[in-house]
């Protein structure tokens, strides 16, 4: 049956290839999400036959889908009850602004993508996509080294932004190390080891502290998993990590600017904040969190839409005691540089519960049977599990990847991709067990 849809399988596989090859471009993730949605809906309507559909979706995957729907519900609840449509568009005066529906739209597409990935029978080319992960890692590394040492940029950003470049490069580095550990071919091992070093250099060249720390934590957890599952891979991965230490030393030895990785700046920012100067990276975050807490107290259940924030801007500034805002400052509507505080401020308790449920179901889904599975299934379960953990760690405390125009589609597409790979492995094992020699 899969051969009947060879053209569809190849086209969809190529879309995911472009996803990994184009992480240096800002519009890549959203464009790929839209195209994947169109492809999946096309398969559903134009190939509507019984053999195309999966009869039963595993329970943990069903719960994950329900959690994703709950996240979308929390956004729409705030928009409707917060009267989000009352905000006037800046570009088109007299018309309502639909800015609060930007992120929900991505979740809306994501829900259908995940559902159709689970419900429809098709296969993706794992080998080609894996190679594109490695190539994408090398591309990011080349961009970073060019911007750092040719253009003299202390924090590289490509065409996507510093935080997004850091996230994409860290994930490509993580996946490359995992593929390196599972590869049996010497050529593939060399390729993925080199790719991981390039991606590592890109991630650390952004000097995004949250991404660097999250990547290191993900590596620690990966090594713990390998220690209990496969000691050979545990030892093998140290080779790649050793190479990263060398890259780290070289970046440190040949800096661009005084504080290469902005580590000393942490203490400077805290000292400045203590001296009543909030105009620093960390100090401004503290003030934004105060604003978010005030917004939660004003509307604790479903949070505040942008229209509500616009009406009560001065009240938020005054009650929070924010020292980075002046009267009628539109900046209050912006992000709060913490996923937890962002959810509480703009979607209230309902939004936070939806976010936490999404985290838990995601980890449960990829962690299911992790102690017993082997081979390719283990590889993709680790990829999915560490992807979610990466975004939960420091990223969610100092940023808002789950409310991002770039990162949110990436999260949903990666979850869909690794779910499909896991299900492909499960189906192949079942077909093999029913095959009689």
Automatic annotation (TrEMBL):
Annotated ranges, domain O-antigen ligase-related? 195-356
Q: Which Pfam families match?
A: Wzy_C
Any one GO CC term of the record: membrane
* Residue ranges crossing the lipid bilayer per the database entry: 12-43, 63-85, 105-121, 128-146, 158-182, 189-205, 211-228, 237-254, 348-366, 378-398
- The primary location reported for this protein is membrane
Q: Tell me where it resides.
A: Membrane
Which keywords has UniProt assigned to this entry? Answer: Membrane, Transmembrane, Transmembrane helix
Instruction: Identify its membrane topology class.
Output: Multi-pass membrane protein
**Protein name listed in UniProt:** O-antigen ligase-related domain-containing protein
Q: Source taxonomy lineage?
A: Bacteria, Pseudomonadati, Campylobacterota, Epsilonproteobacteria, Campylobacterales
